[in-house]
Every structure is written in C-alpha cells, then in structure tokens.
Amino acid sequence: MSPPSSATAAAGGGGGGSGRRCELRKDAVFGRWVIFSPARARRPSDFKSSAPVTTTSPNTRNASNGGGSTAHPPPSCPFCIGREHDCAPEIFRFPAGASEWRLRVIENLYPALRREEEPPASDPEDEGRGGGEKRFIQGYGFHDVVIETPYHDVHLSDLSSTETAEILLAYKERFLQLAALGNIKYIQVFKNHGASAGASMSHSHSQIIGLPVVPPTVSSRLRSMMESYGGTGKCGLCEAWSEDIIIHQSQYFSSIAPVAASYPFEIWVVPRDHLSHFHEIDREKAVDFGGILTEMLRRLSQQLNDPPFNFMIHTSPLGLAATSLPYAHWFLQIIPQLSGVGGFELGSGCYINPVFPEDAAKLLREVNLST
Q: Of 41, 58, 228, 315, which has the fewest CB atoms closer than 10 Å, so is most exposed?
C-alpha cells in the first residue's frame, strides 16, 4: 500500500498538476486501477464543494447531545426528540428506556429488505457453487436507521469522541443481534450526508443493512486482499504507511489518504492492530475511533466547504473462514462527493482522480481545527 517511489509520487503539494505527471496506480484492497490525472483538476486547495450541506452557522451547531438544541427543527422531522411516535418501530435506544435519549436505533420506514419475509432455507451461494445457481430469493433482510442525536441542528462532526463512540457501540450491538440470527451473512453500516450523497433526511443519521448473501464487492475485496497477502505474506492494511499519505494517527487508528484513492480527498480510517471484524471493537477503541472519525469529518468540512459525503464500514462477512483472517482487515472509508462518476468509470471499473492522495493528505493535515 506504500506509494511508488517515483519522482512524481515524491513531489510536494503543488497545484493543479504542477510537478505531477499522469499516473496509474492499482488499489490492492479493492483490486481496481485508478488514473491520477492532475491536468483535469484545479489546484487541490480549490477543490471545494460548491454547495455546502448545511447553512447553519457553527455557533448554532455546537450543542452536544446533553446541551440541547439552539435552532428550531422543521415540524416534519420525525427523528427529533419528542417525535418518536412518528417513526417506525424502535429496536433500542441509549440510555435504555430513557425519555431523554442520546441515540435511537429504529426500523427503516421504507426498507430495502424486509424482516417479515421468509429467510432462505439454505445458503444461496452454497447452491451456486454446487452448480444449481440460485438467482432469485425472497427479499429477506434487515434495514435499520441509527438516529445519532436527538437534536436536528447537531451533526456527527459536532459530537465528542465519547458521544461518537456511543454510535459505534450501537452499531456493534446491532451487529451482534443480527449475527445471532444465523441467517445474515453480511452487515453494511453506511452514512449518507447531504442530498447529493443520498440522504433523504437532514437530521443526522446512519443506516445498517443485514443481508442474507455476501455482496460481490465484498467478495472481490477479500479476493484482492488475499492475492496481496499471497504475494507479500503481509496484510495490505497492516503495512507501515508512507508519511506522505498519513493524515493523523491515534493510539489505535490511522487515518490516511489511500495511495490509490478512487475519489478526491478520500479518507480511510484503519485499525492499527489487525482486526477482521468491526464488531470486535471495545469501548476504549470505540472512543479512540470516535475521536479520529469526527476529526476527519471536521477537516473535510473546513477544507472542502462542508461537502456531502458517504462513509462505509468495510468489515468481514459473518462466519468468515479462519484461513481468511490473516488478510481480512476492517476499515472505514469516507468519500466526499465532489465529482460525479461518469461513463468511463461505470463502463471500465477504473476511476479517474484529479487529486493525488499525497496532496490531499497534506492539505488535510494543514487544517487548523482550533479556529
């Protein structure tokens, strides 16, 4: 995962392609080629979102979960405290049973999959390997929403590391509940922030989908990491990172601009210890993870004008074979939505990124969070 030692990779910040030449890099985790084409970009420092997600001033967004809200939520928002009766059924809340809750996990009112459907009688992928490929199964699964704060004007980047840790531990609790069912094969946690990133509600929330199959992108990622491990004898995410792509390191996590980032200013937050499953996280690591996650979101917001973004937790399938554990390493990916995906990317599976990750990491390191 270390960047190539070419003169172009070693070049400093620069702007809009100064000192940079077009380059192709292969991502050893997702197994895809990325074209870095700085001639297609403005200066990296000018690569900002043209329409920030929120228009609330920082002075009215700094209330924590315990401090109350300073702005009036829209009357139609069912995620705000006091509007619980307008939501789909609740699964659990923190604190349990409290009227003054800090977060809630609820069913999605418009689920992609339905828990009421009959689960598959057998593993569809096992049948496929036996030659009788099963292409249609009932739409069984789980689709939940994590309401991250009771207050409409508070965003994930406003929360403390401890408050964010509670959200991460809620993910873990739901992971364990779904894993105990025995018929869920993969659990995807994701967050859409901003309408252009797919968020239908502006109140801060994230989502969890439990699937009865392992998605093809997950299988492809594991194959790619297995091939990398077979060539080097090391997990691709356990390697020592080049200082050029490190944004920040905490006790348990590293945040990097991946060397073959598919998107401008893409960030990965990676456990420094080799861990295959997200739900292995404990409270101490969750607080540390919460701190580095909110710091990365603040750096993106300040550097890129509060852009829409997605984040996804890339973990291992439930019931992963023990032989896969040495190369399976979970991480969180943050993608600011700064440019669309076009026909070339859709047709080829290759991506064009106008910002070298070394430049993105440098600009994100330079953000002054004390102001």
A: 58
Kindly report the backbone phi and psi dihedral angles of residue 116, in degrees, each rounded to the nearest multiple of 5, phi listed first: -80, -15
DSSP-based three-state secondary structure for 334: strand
Asked if 274 and 235 count as a contact pair (C-beta separation under 8 A), the reply is yes
pTM score, two decimals?
0.86
Q: Quick check: helix, strand or coil at residue 304? A: helix
pLDDT tens, position by position, 120-141: 777 766 655 555 566 788 889 9
| 186-193 and 205-211 beta bridge pairing | antiparallel
Residue 205 known to be catalytic: yes
Q: Residue 190, exposed/middle/buried by CB under 10 A (0-12, 13-18, 19+)? A: middle
pLDDT digits (tens, 9 = 90+) for 258-313: 999 999 999 999 999 999 999 999 999 999 999 999 999 999 999 998 999 999 99
235 is in an annotated binding site: no
What is the fold, at CATH topology level, of the domain defined by 13-64+76-365?
HIT family, subunit A (3.30.428)
152 annotated as ligand-binding = yes
Question: Residues in the chain, how many?
Answer: 371
